[in-house]
Amino acid sequence: MILDVTHLCDESLRDGLDHFNGPIWASHSNCRALVPHNRQFSDEQIRELIQRGAVIGAAFDAWMLAPGWIRGETTPESAAVTLDTVVDHIDHICQIAGNARHSMIGSDLDGAFGREQCPADVYTIADLTNLPRVLSARGYSQADVEQIAHGNFLRFLRRAWSNR
Question: Which of 84, 89, 71 shows the shortest CA–CA distance to 33?
Answer without folding.
Answer: 89
